[in-house]
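Figure 3 (text version): structure tokens given as input.
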């Protein structure tokens, strides 16, 4: 029998089952740090003497610190969310991997700052390794790609559009300074050069690179409508709107594409929009596809967007392609074998079953559409990926990977790959990222997690597969319990759509009710009873989040579910707003309850009691 990672040994545990092991490793890390301090020039005398420690003010200082820490602990225990429990089904939060927590605490004691190698000689190399991990996970060539940890997905998304903006303006700057290199190219052709063409062009002007950058958008600033359009799905994270404003694109130039009934970007509408823009000679700065939408966990058709870009390039139209995989990026590990190769679809089911990742006798996942979307990520230009979501590491840990490291020159303020003599780390990471300071402890945390759990089907694949199976079973149970008897009142329960990932959206309606506003109020009341709104969270059976779909954000996509719940389409046309519950099943334990009944049965009973109270 081959060695396998046991998920139950990775976490502190819902009931602190691994508490003794955790405490031992924490104390080992603290003791190592204490010895390090003592061993640095042991010939130096102690600064704080035993006499001073016996004095009144010193003792009062220790008492004050103790009191403050006790207050903090009390506040944390009273109001914090129980991410660790299978009873938490709210936002994208779950228990944290023990190696990630301990790695963070161990490094935090040394307080490294990863923007400069001199301030992070231990943790900067870890970040470079993690960047390679990101690149390999996304299917990029690790010898050509690059990646790094940033504060969160919003910062990573902003970096993605930053790359696109600066790269797009380079051909125009080169045309001014070295017109012979672009002889015969029209303004439209310059605006539609591919990323690879721009990078190859940049390599030819390194001798005047500073002059090129001064003539590019980073030197001249953004001129109205100079950049073109940035295209996103309606399911975009709100950070894309902020990024469009910050980067100087302007909100009027951010175009949202309608989603289909599965809440994936409608590719036919995307194609129509791109061709209309091309016909009007309006350049397209870039397109964003989402791998795991914030509200629904949906996976866009990345493969079809890649194919569309290739088709348009034959017609002289190109655009930057960024994947917002902040939520779903780590799930690509499920599709990778031990060598990092993408497993063929016809063999994946067997591997998932044989390795105990997903029980294919019960759950059929992934669909071929989802599989092809994950496979096509490798053909994007950059990807956002958040370790503090499906990487199960502490906040704050976002991340970005770029397909070609030469792109860094478009945003850097100094030479991007100037290395300190004798080291393997860039001397000033802060010159080509957004942050000016960032915790090296985060790099240690992510690095530790990756060392314990490989980014393939045997490691992270097994962990994330457990959460996907839990969500898929959650969905199946909803399908089997579509009509609930609540003290003689029939209540309909419907899921939004079959999950692409590990999030399930659903809603309730009293049978016979035709009033959409009343149904919305019912689901809002349920949320209030299933969240912090109803009081201290430790008194709540289960924590569940909720969301609201409006026509402004989703067009008529929600109409299908509203009708399935017994509400006429005319009501949707009148109200144009729909509230529903949202369960993010990140926990690997939801369907693994070792008792007389599993958590789903307990959850359903809890919902029935709350419905009784409301009705």
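Below: residues designed for each position.
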């Amino acid at each position: 029998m081959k060695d396998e990672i046991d998920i139950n040994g990775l976490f502190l545990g819902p009931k602190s089952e691994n508490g003794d092991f955790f405490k031992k490793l924490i104390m080992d890390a603290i003791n190592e740090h204490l010895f390090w301090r003592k061993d640095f020039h042991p010939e130096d005398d102690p600064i704080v003497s035993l006499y001073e420690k016996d004095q009144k003010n010193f003792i009062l200082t220790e008492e004050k610190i103790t009191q403050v820490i006790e207050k903090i602990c009390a506040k944390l225990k009273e109001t914090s969310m129980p991410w660790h429990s299978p009873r938490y089904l709210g936002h994208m939060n779950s228990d944290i991997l023990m190696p990630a927590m301990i790695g963070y605490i161990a490094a935090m004691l040394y307080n490294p700052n990863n923007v400069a190698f001199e301030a992070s000689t231990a943790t900067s190399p870890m970040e470079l390794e993690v960047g390679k991990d990101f690149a390999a996970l996304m299917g990029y060539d690790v010898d050509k790609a690059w990646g790094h940890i940033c504060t969160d997905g919003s910062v990573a998304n902003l970096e993605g559009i930053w790359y696109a903006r600066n790269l797009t303006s380079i051909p125009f700057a080169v045309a001014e300074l070295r017109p012979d290199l672009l002889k015969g190219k029209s303004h439209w052709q310059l605006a539609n050069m591919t990323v690879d063409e721009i990078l190859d062009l940049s390599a030819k002007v390194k001798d005047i690179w500073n002059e090129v950058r001064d003539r590019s958008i980073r030197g001249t600033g953004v001129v109205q409508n100079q950049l073109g359009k940035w295209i996103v799905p309606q399911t975009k994270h709100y950070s894309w709107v902020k990024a469009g404003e910050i980067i100087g694109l302007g909100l009027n130039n951010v175009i949202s594409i309608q989603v289909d009934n599965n809440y994936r970007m409608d590719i036919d509408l995307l194609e129509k929009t791109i061709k209309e823009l091309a016909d009007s000679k309006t350049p397209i700065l870039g397109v964003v596809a989402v791998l795991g939408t914030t509200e629904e966990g949906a996976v866009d058709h990345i493969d079809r967007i890649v194919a569309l870009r290739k088709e348009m390039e034959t017609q002289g139209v190109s655009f930057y392609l960024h994947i917002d995989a902040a939520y779903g990026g780590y799930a690509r590990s499920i599709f990778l074998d031990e060598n990092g190769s993408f497993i063929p679809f016809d063999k994946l089911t067997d591997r998932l079953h044989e390795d105990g990742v997903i029980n294919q006798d019960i759950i059929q996942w992934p669909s071929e559409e989802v599989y092809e979307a994950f496979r096509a990520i490798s053909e994007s230009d950059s990807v956002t990926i958040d370790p503090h979501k499906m990487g199960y590491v502490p906040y704050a840990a976002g991340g970005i990977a770029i397909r070609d490291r030469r792109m860094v020159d478009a945003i850097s303020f100094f030479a991007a790959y100037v290395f300190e003599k004798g080291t393997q780390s860039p001397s000033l990471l802060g010159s080509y990222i957004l942050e000016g300071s960032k915790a090296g402890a985060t790099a240690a945390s992510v690095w530790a997690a990756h060392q314990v759990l490989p980014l393939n089907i045997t490691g992270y694949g097994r962990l994330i597969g457990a959460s996907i199976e839990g969500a898929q079973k959650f969905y199946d149970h909803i399908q089997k319990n579509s009509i609930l008897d609540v003290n003689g009142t029939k209540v309909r329960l419907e899921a939004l759509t079959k999950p692409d990932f590990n999030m399930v959206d659903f809603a309730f309606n009293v049978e016979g009710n035709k009033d959409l506003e009343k149904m919305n109020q019912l689901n809002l009341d349920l949320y209030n009873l299933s969240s912090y709104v109803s009081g201290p969270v430790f008194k709540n059976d289960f924590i569940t989040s909720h969301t609201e779909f409006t026509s402004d954000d989703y067009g008529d996509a929600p109409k299908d579910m509203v009708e399935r719940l017994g509400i006429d389409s005319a009501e949707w046309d009148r109200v144009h707003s729909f509230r529903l519950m949202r369960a993010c099943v990140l926990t690997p334990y939801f369907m693994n309850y070792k008792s007389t009944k599993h958590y789903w049965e307990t959850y359903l009973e809890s919902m029935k009691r709350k419905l009784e109270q409301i009705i």
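The domain at 465-614 is CATH 3.90.1150.10 (Aspartate Aminotransferase, domain 1).
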